[in-house]
Design brief:
The chain is mainly α. The chain is built from ten helices and no strands. It is about 70% helix and about 0% strand. It is elongated.
């Protein structure tokens, strides 16, 4: 998105919310935080927010709405569906065919199963406890990925550079 398109979005918001004021600083900050979003998508997100809320949106609200709009239906599993994938893989592959089992799952489910340990999941004598742990961990991983998806690419790169400079471990890929 270019600055003139940000100005249009801010003008729409100012027209929709009487107390929403626009100045040069606000326009610059909004541009910096939303420039990676295509104008048409941002426009739809703003219209949707105007219809849904009596309060003016913040930048975070727009990014959340954009993520919601652009995430394909069915890509987001709920934790119970995710556990269903694990159970199916246990039945089909057992504890000895871990690679095949993990490959049969969606990436997010496989990531959590790998974190927990495939053999430990399969061989647990308390499946209800393992299920509860999986559901909680899956929800946490999903939440972290949603938050990361909201960040502009430039900010993600800046965070990665800082982490690398200070030798911090990035959780997402387990890299240093």
């Amino acid at each position: 998105m270019v600055k003139s398109e940000i100005a249009k979005l801010l003008a729409v918001l100012a027209a929709s919310y009487p107390k929403f004021e626009v100045d040069e600083i606000k326009q610059q900050v909004w541009y910096e935080m939303l420039q990676d979003i295509p104008y048409q998508v941002a426009q739809v997100a703003v219209k949707k927010l105007i219809l849904e809320s009596p309060y003016p949106p913040a930048i975070a609200d727009i990014r959340k709405q954009v993520a919601e709009i652009t995430t394909p239906k069915g890509e987001q599993l709920d934790p119970a569906e995710a556990w269903g994938e694990v159970e199916k893989a246990i039945r089909h592959y057992g504890s000895y065919r871990e690679e095949e089992a993990l490959a049969s799952m969606s990436p997010a489910v496989a990531k959590v199963a790998k974190y927990m340990g495939w053999r430990e999941i399969c061989l647990s004598e308390e499946p209800g406890v393992v299920r509860g742990q999986f559901l909680k961990m899956f929800s946490q991983v999903q939440e972290r990925e949603k938050k990361e998806a909201l960040l502009p690419e430039k900010l993600k790169n800046d965070i990665a550079k800082i982490a690398e400079k200070h030798d911090l471990k990035l959780i997402e890929g387990g890299k240093k």
